[in-house]
């Protein structure tokens, strides 16, 4: 298991040195971005990650953030024309006239917007966290609540938005407070499922700080339920992940949940 | 001169259509124009200057093709009688769905995602259907929903329907904006079923929109249907293109309004509307 992880890590490193690879929401069985010729995609559709991830089922989504690889700014620029063409097709398919004044630049704007909504693929946790972990003799609960969160539903590609509340019990190491919000940003600006998002945030904090416990609660509104489908305007979805002492000790959990409600 | 040329052109086009359309009396221009107005908004240009200008403006903003034009062109393409119109329309719908689905596949892969992973396997189809639902207003007509629900009623006081939930798509970024619409009108012997006001909002909001145009389209539709003494429409909405991206302003709301008839002329009537709808 470890050996395959290392192999994966080193082979991803190599890929990173050449054309950049992309990791999808923590998965490794993602496509490698095409080289300049644009024909490499088919050949690269079986990156080494795919082989080892078959040995690890759903756990692959919880891969360590240290091993994530990202989409690059160059990838974004290269993808823009195809994205814009795809959006033009969508506009035509919906019965609109892409040549009318209001829609002339819409494919480009929509493509850029979508790249922004998935910019979490471009960022690495390790870059965000590296400098902001401090040794501090503090072992009381630290909570950052009401962090606005915007994500995209991976099933319907419509927005999800809500608030994230994070609490952790430090174990001699604390994290810069805004870094908690940045971790939320990185994972939420992707195609997501709320359950996975919650867990990824909690796991990232656990791996970075090795705290005594972490609790993450997300309450969000899903436009896929509000704007379409069941059309329930006021429904909210609440998910939580409790790790360490937050999971084992009900009183700690209770304290956290009370503090985020107040 | 311009009017007669336009009629000739339309007549010329209509002559090429299937026998189903020959029930229209082409020799009677007045009736033709009335009938044409329901299928081709641009023809209302002929009807009355001010109203036609507004409607033409709305149509020429081309918030999608007018749905009946689509139906016409489909029939024309099928070259058969309109009995097959429905089938060809369904076929066209599913062809469009496939195109949109393929476009979403491209989008997912260009964003760097793995389209083969479990969570994304059917996403292109779901996203395509979702997008079609969110723009279903293109396929609906005011004529269909309003036809039966206009009643003669001796009521000349204001009728307000407020807090109508509204969901639309920004035509610039293709992200949602949502909020509430407040509608008021002063009837002139004709009232409309209350839910029809909400349905009018639905028809125009389920399109690629700009909030200003949406507000105007709703007001114009009510004015044309009921010919009331005055119509007022106010929409307050939150635009995800401002909240989720760009300036990232979470709490910003956009408020637009259209005042027609007495609401435009009389400040006191307007004030009464605002006090009924906007005060919390």
Question: Helices and strands in order, then pairings?
Answer:
The complex is a heterodimer of chains A (262) and B (280).
Chain A: H1 2-17, H2 40-43, H3 48-53, H4 73-93, H5 106-117, H6 125-129, E1 133-135, E2 142-153, E3 159-169, E4 173-175, H7 177-188, E5 191-192, H8 194-209, E6 213-222, H9 223-226, E7 237-244, H10 245-248, H11 250-261
Parallel strand pairs in A: 2-5
Antiparallel strand pairs in A: 1-4, 2-3, 3-6, 6-7
Chain B: H1 2-15, H2 29-39, H3 49-60, H4 67-78, H5 85-110, H6 123-134, H7 142-146, E1 150-152, E2 159-170, E3 176-186, E4 190-192, H8 194-205, E5 208-209, H9 211-226, E6 230-239, H10 240-243, E7 254-261, H11 262-265, H12 267-277
Parallel strand pairs in B: 2-5
Antiparallel strand pairs in B: 1-4, 2-3, 3-6, 6-7
Helix pairs in contact in B: 3-9, 4-5, 5-6, 8-9
Largest sheet of chain B: 5 strands, mixed
Q: Provide the spatial order of strands within the biggest beta sheet of chain B.
A: 5-2-3-6-7
Q: Please report the two chains with the greatest interface, counting residues with C-beta closer than 8 angstroms to the partner's C-beta.
A: A-B, 57 and 55 residues
Strand content of chain A: 15-25%
Unreliable residue stretches of chain B: 16-62, 65-82
Annotation, overall tally of beta strands of chain B = 7
Question: Helix count of chain A, per DSSP?
Answer: 11
Count helical runs of chain B.
12
Relative helix content of chain B: 40-55%
> Helices and strands of chain A, in N-to-C order?
HHHHHHEEEEHEHEHEHH
Query: Class by helix and strand content of chain A?
Result: alpha+beta
Number of strands of chain A: 7
In round numbers, the mean pLDDT of chain B is 78
Calculate Rg of chain A over CA atoms: 20 Å
Kindly state the mean pLDDT of chain A as a whole number?
80
Structural class of chain B: alpha+beta
SSE succession of chain B: HHHHHHHEEEEHEHEHEHH
Strand content of chain B: 15-25%
| Helix-residue proportion of chain A | 40-55%
Quaternary structure annotation? heterodimer
């Amino acid at each position: 298991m470890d050996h395959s992880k290392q192999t994966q890590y080193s082979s991803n490193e190599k890929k990173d040195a050449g054309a950049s690879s992309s990791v999808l929401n923590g998965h490794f069985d993602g496509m490698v971005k095409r080289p300049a010729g644009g024909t490499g995609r088919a050949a690269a559709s079986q990156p080494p990650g795919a082989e080892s991830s078959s040995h690890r089922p759903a756990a692959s989504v919880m891969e360590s953030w240290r091993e994530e690889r990202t989409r690059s700014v160059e990838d974004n620029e290269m993808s823009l024309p195809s994205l814009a063409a795809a959006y033009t097709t969508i506009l035509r398919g919906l019965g609109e006239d892409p040549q009318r004044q209001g829609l002339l630049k819409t494919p480009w704007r929509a493509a850029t917007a979508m790249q922004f909504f998935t910019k979490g693929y471009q960022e690495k946790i390790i870059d965000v966290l590296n400098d902001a972990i401090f040794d501090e003799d503090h072992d009381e609960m630290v909570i950052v609540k009401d962090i606005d969160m915007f994500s995209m539903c991976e099933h319907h590609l419509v927005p999800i938005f809500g608030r994230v509340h994070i609490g952790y019990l430090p174990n001699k190491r604390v994290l810069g407070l805004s870094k908690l919000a940045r971790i939320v940003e990185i994972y939420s600006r992707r195609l997501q499922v709320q359950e996975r998002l919650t867990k990824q945030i909690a796991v990232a904090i656990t791996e970075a700080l090795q705290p005594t416990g972490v609790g993450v609660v997300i309450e969000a509104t899903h436009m896929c339920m509000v704007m379409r489908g069941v059309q329930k305007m006021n429904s909210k979805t609440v998910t939580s992940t409790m790790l360490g002492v937050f999971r084992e000790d009900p009183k700690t959990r209770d304290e956290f949940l009370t503090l985020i409600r107040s | 001169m311009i009017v007669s040329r336009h009629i000739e052109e339309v007549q010329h086009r209509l002559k090429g259509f299937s026998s189903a359309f020959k029930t229209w009396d082409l020799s009677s221009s007045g009736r033709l124009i009335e009938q044409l107005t329901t299928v081709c908004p641009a023809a209302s240009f002929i009807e009355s200057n001010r109203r036609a200008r507004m409607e033409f403006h709305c149509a020429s903003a081309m918030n999608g093709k007018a749905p009946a034009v689509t139906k016409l062109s489909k029939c024309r393409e099928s070259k058969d009688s309109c009995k097959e119109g429905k089938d060809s329309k369904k076929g066209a719908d599913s062809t469009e769905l496939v195109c949109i689905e393929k476009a979403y596949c491209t989008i997912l892969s260009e964003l760097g995602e793995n389209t083969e992973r479990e969570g994304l396997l059917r996403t292109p189809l779901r996203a395509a259907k979702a997008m079609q639902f969110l723009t279903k207003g293109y396929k609906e007509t005011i004529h269909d929903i309003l036809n039966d629900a206009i009643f003669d009623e001796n009521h000349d006081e204001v009728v307000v329907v407020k807090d109508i939930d509204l969901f639309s798509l920004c035509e610039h970024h293709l992200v949602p904006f949502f909020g509430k619409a407040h509608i008021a009108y002063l009837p002139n012997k004709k009232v409309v079923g209350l839910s029809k006001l909400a349905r009018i909002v639905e028809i125009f909001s389920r399109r690629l929109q700009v909030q200003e145009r949406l507000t105007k389209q709703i007001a114009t539709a009510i004015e044309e249907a009921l010919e009331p003494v005055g119509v007022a429409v106010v929409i307050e909405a939150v635009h995800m293109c401002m909240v989720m991206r760009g300036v990232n302003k979470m709490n910003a709301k956009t408020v637009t309004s259209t005042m027609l008839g007495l609401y435009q002329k009389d400040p006191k009537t307007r004030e009464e509307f605002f006090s009924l709808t906007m005060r919390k």
